[in-house]
Design goal:
single chain; 3 helices; alpha+beta; two-stranded antiparallel sheet
Length: 83
């Protein structure tokens, strides 16, 4: 599943995706191909690093068939970034 929501008022794009189908790096490549580039700020780099870290952890949990797969740190990202 992939969905996107544009907040035109704040100039933000929110994307929800299935980690089994794609990842942040692929979405970033597609956005760059159509001319959308993220802010080149420290805060943006920190957010991207956190996303990659969370993805790596989720992929490891999925591949290990861990019991805690039902919990997704990606679900909490919007809440973390809105603080």
């Amino acid at each position: 599943m992939l969905s996107a929501k544009l907040d035109e008022e704040n100039g933000e794009l929110f994307v929800v995706y299935d980690l089994l189908e794609t990842d942040y790096a692929h979405i970033e490549e597609v956005l760059e191909k159509i001319g959308v580039e993220p802010d080149d700020t420290l805060w943006q780099h920190l957010k991207e690093s956190f996303i990659r870290f969370a993805e790596e952890n989720e992929k490891a949990a999925l591949s290990a068939h861990a019991d805690f797969v039902s919990y997704s740190p990606m679900e909490d990202m919007d809440e973390i970034f809105d603080e």
